[in-house]
Design goal:
FAD/NAD(P)-binding domain; Polyamine Oxidase, Chain A, domain 2; alpha/beta; 481 residues; 7-stranded mixed β-sheet; globular
Length: 481
């Protein structure tokens, strides 16, 4: 390597940093992966946050995007200790009348549960599901000319629509509510363009693979990726917080699994004035307020579907969810926030002592919010699971500041790596020929602030590594096409 200690250094061990490191190491490069914390994983960590014996996912919990990730699927991570558990119902959405809409692995079963919206659901999702194998690599990639333009156009016309616009396809409260809960994962007002994309992809993922949780916690996914990287000869160093380029060993390429705010801090002096200006204008989205509970019994949901689901969307009807998300976007806190919840211990006995359970939930709040949303979140759970509060034996809360302290990428509590609205979804983190290149030779960004954006899929890191291989290591690079 001559003047270089490594061919490449990757800063940050979230799913994208790990994906980038693995991709480069697979091509025979020497790669060093640096992580600021004492454990690898970024948003994929599991800790005893409440009481001894209770394992709580600190951030990500359920992983539909990981199992449909075109890159992760090539790694056979079960060889490295990963085991997924698949709940009978992917997600349930309870309503005020005691019933619930449910997203099953089966499209037919999901549609059948929506009563007179059965055909509307099938017409919306079936074409995306059928065409997904032809477009998945392009959907989860930077903007480019599609190889299957007709299939991509069929998806794109729906995906670019607002969630409220596409909700008009449904006539029942169940159909509208299920759609609202899925699209609210976008962390935007449901009136925004592109909010339908998130719902379409999450529902398609359910019908392709389900919505699994890693046995033992999300840390198990991070560990499997790290073992995969090390099995190829990669080197991992933890406890290495990087705040300046001077701290890095000599390398031909450095890839940063960080968002623009940290990138400017670390390497801003190396960038052109135009690129610095673009990064300073990067916009972050809603934050989150999260709670983990230790319970002495499962959450007592009224609707039976909720007691069989790994994920829960708690917010009632579409109108109520849309109003709550719009309120957050305007900078205020809804009295009844939309709550995303998971109950991993129902399906994974390793998460809690015998007979006890964990419960995980968060709601959206304005970026940087300091408001304590504990009562509002618990009220939403209690609304659909009367008696929930009586079962709480331990609790751990994280506001937006705590989320950012846990992971510096979560600026103001934004877990998506930046706002993914129509203005920024195709230009993240800056308007450039390649979103992964910075203006400084050899420095790249590979985080969720690059396409295709947030989610545990590793595709941002994979594509960034491909860019590095093309730019700097052509003798190692072999096209996957």
């Amino acid at each position: 390597m001559g003047q270089y200690d490594y061919d490449a250094v990757v800063v940050g061990s979230g799913p994208n940093g790990l994906a980038a490191a693995i991709t480069l190491q697979q091509k025979g490069l020497s790669v060093l992966l640096l992580e600021a914390k004492q454990t690898i994983g970024g948003g994929m960590r599991t800790e005893a946050l409440t009481l001894p014996g209770f394992k709580h996912d600190v951030c990500s919990a359920i992983h539909p995007m990981a199992v449909i990730s075109p890159f992760f699927k090539t790694l056979s991570l079960e060889k490295f200790g990963l085991e997924y558990i698949y709940p009978e119902i992917c997600a349930a959405h309870p309503l005020n009348n005691g019933t619930a809409a449910a997203l099953y692995p089966s499209l037919t079963a999901t549609a059948a549960g929506l009563d007179t919206d059965k055909d509307a659901y099938t017409r919306l999702i079936s074409p995306v599901l059928t065409g997904w194998p032809l477009i998945e690599k392009e959907v989860l990639a930077p903007l480019s000319l599609p190889e299957k333009p007709l299939h991509m156009a069929a998806f794109g016309l729906k995906a670019l629509s607002s969630a409220l616009h596409l909700s008009k396809r449904f006539s029942t409260e169940k159909g509208k509510a299920l759609w609202a809960g899925m699209t609210a994962h976008s962390l935007q007002p449901l009136s925004n363009f592109t909010t339908s994309a998130v719902g379409l992809v999450l529902m398609t993922a359910a019908h392709l693979q389900g919505w699994p949780l890693p046995k033992g916690g999300s840390q198990s996914l991070a560990n499997a990726l790290a073992v995969c990287f090390q099995s190829l000869g990669g080197v991992v160093q933890t406890g290495e917080y990087i705040s300046s380029l001077r701290q890095l060993p000599a390398a031909k390429a450095v890839l940063f699994d960080v968002t623009p705010a940290q990138l400017l801090q670390i390497a801003g002096h190396s960038f052109s004035s135009l690129y610095r200006w673009q990064l300073t204008r990067y916009r972050y989205g809603m934050g989150v307020f999260k709670i983990d509970w230790a319970l002495d019994d499962p959450a007592p949901f009224t609707a039976s579907e909720c007691r069989k689901a790994g994920t829960l969307h708690l917010g009632g009807a579409l109108k109520e969810i849309a109003a709550a998300e719009a309120q957050v976007a305007r900078g205020s806190h809804p009295e009844r926030p939309f709550v995303l919840a998971a109950q991993q211990s129902l399906f994974d006995g390793s998460r809690a002592p015998a007979g006890k359970h964990t419960f995980w939930a968060y709601c959206h709040v304005p970026n940087g919010s300091q408001k304590n949303m504990t009562d509002a979140i618990e009220a939403q759970v209690e609304r659909f699971a009367p008696g929930f509060r009586e079962r709480i034996i331990g609790k751990h809360v994280m506001n937006t500041a705590a989320m950012e302290a846990y992971n510096n990428n979560y600026i103001g509590g934004d877990i998506n790596g930046g706002l993914m609205d129509i203005r920024q979804i195709f230009t993240r983190p800056a308007l450039r020929y390649s979103p992964f290149r910075t203006s400084a030779k050899g420095l790249y960004i590979c985080s969720s602030a690059t396409p295709p954006g947030g989610g545990v899929h590793g595709m941002c890191g994979y594509h960034a590594a491909q860019r590095v291989l093309k730019d700097l290591f052509q003798k190692h690079y072999m096209s996957n096409k």
